[in-house]
Amino acid sequence: MEWLNAVAQGVLIGGLYALFAAGLSLIFGVMRLVNIAHGDLIVLAAYVVLLIVGVTGLNPLVAIFIAAPVMAAFGYGLQRLLFNRTLGDDILPPLLVSFGLSVILQNILLIAFSADSRKLDAGAIETASWTLAPGLTLGLLPLLMFATALAVIGALQFMFYRTSLGRALRATSDDQEVARLMGYDNRHLYGVAMALSLAVVAVAGAFLAVRANFIPSAGPARLIFGFEAVIIGGLGNLWGTLIGGVILGVAQSLGAMIDPGWQLLAGHLAFLLVLAVRPQGLMPRISA
Amino acid sequence: MSDFAVTRATPESRIAALVALIVVAGLAAAPWWMERNSIRVAGEMLIYVGLASLWNLLAGYGGLVSVGQHAYVGLGAYILFAFGILLGAPPLAVVPVAGVAAAILALPVSMLVFRLRGAYFAIGTWVVAEVFRLTAAQVTVLGGGSGVSLPIAIVRSIGSTREMREFVVYDATLAVTLGIIAGIFFIARSRWGLALQAIRDSEIAAETSGVDVAGAKRLLYVAAAAGAAMLGALISLAKLRITPDSAFSVNDWTAYVIFITVIGGIGRIEGPIVGTILFFVLRETLADLGPFYLIALGAVAVVTMLFAPKGVYGLIAERFHIQLFPIARRVAIGAATKGDAQE
Questions:
Q1: Quick check: B64 contacting A, CB < 8 Å?
Q2: Are B259 and A100 within 8 A, CB to CB?
Q3: Domain with B37 in it: what CATH number?
Q4: What is each CA distance from A53 to A47, A60, A67, in whole angstroms?
Q5: Average pLDDT of each block of 10 consecutive residues along chain A (288 residues)?
Q6: Within an 8 Å CB–CB cutoff, is residue A40 touching chain B?
């Protein structure tokens, strides 16, 4: 039962990893940009939620509704002013600019909030849980986190395949020159994609802040978890990303059962195993 | 027959070679004329010149943007300590062993990470470095997560006095870094260099011209791993203590190295040298500012990438048409009579 419980907790934490990954996957899909600063933006979002809670006294999970538009606006500006200048055939500029941004963000957070670890209190929801069987208990917060991941991925999927914005984004992704000939404004669309990505980042940041302690330098590890979920699940498939997050979460949770030092290592090894036997990921995009 | 010749050497490259010879001789003799503190800084600069040259080889010549080279720096340090603590091996003799061991390990690693392309390759290399760091933290004979110091007896085997040891490690670092630069210079001038330039400009075109793209990239990755491990072993000798977090530090051995290469000038041998000098000038003047210094460094790298992607040295070289390392060929009209490079 102990092991079953570990698997269940791993599955639920996988929802958080899928939230880390969804924003990363989205901008890669639209503009082939891998944002090294993605993890640091998640941590930035956690501090934005911290500020909102401090000013308004809202529950951190309610504060998402303010943090998401704020982060989205920041994302749009970031894309228009910074990342759009780096896009082209050469992969080096976007990579290095986002790497520089990562270092800048970490140190701005360090100056503004110090290196002390913070955590947000979401109230009674944190301790509420259901005991399904002796030794198998599901917390309300992890369940809510997983349900949120399902909802976010479902919404992104709907946006991509059922709306005109999604059609425009898919068109620029397939062939940006033809899309421009059809009258789409790439620079604006990329801004919108980054805004969506950072709205998802805001959700992920809020759950990160409520679930455990966070510090300004926590970003790179979040980037790596999200990246691993994307690759395990298969590039370009958001539901695959969720599966990838779940596999990563379960691997870490089982690793921690063997030895606490094995928690992170087990997750990385699961990722490398998938890379070795199925490099296209478990559920690569079926059709273009 | 004709009145032109294809040459590589230029007047300024001959002067540069002479100056370089004097500088190298001066650096090698540093123990006789520099203060201990200056030698420590010079040793650190040499480490960064070496690491940045290797990263430049990967990214600037091979298009392999790794953000996980700290994996091999830390590996080299751990190999040196493992041989010293478990076998009592003389540290300096282990430095080349660390290089060979890293090359052997880099081969299977390359098979995994080469399945990822472009930016995903970058993060994949980072995961590998994390795996190395977490594994090192599990090795209890080498101190686990809290690290270990090199035993006194081993330390004494390098040199009897503290000054003596510092000089020996410094000169070994100079030798390894010069070896790395010389190696890159000869790669750049060889058939491999031509192949790498072709790959950098267009992978598909290179492939169709008969270049073994995958093989060339693998060679680069393995060579860069070997070089980084040797430098990592020397870094640990300068510190005499390792912990997983410092040996596998992403900031120290990857972030700074990338900034140095970008600011100095990516894709040119001179770039990392210029970048290291600029980096240390920035560090000496701004390091007291702590996080502000890192913000400035990140901002300088971003601005460089956006507005001067070839770096400071790239700007200088293009403005004044100079080439200090004779690599690119140029046609010199009327030069054949001077007897330069005629065949």
A1: no
A2: yes
A3: 1.10.3470
A4: 10, 6, 10
A5: 91 96 90 91 97 95 96 97 88 89 96 94 88 88 96 94 92 85 90 96 96 94 94 88 96 94 94 89 63
A6: no
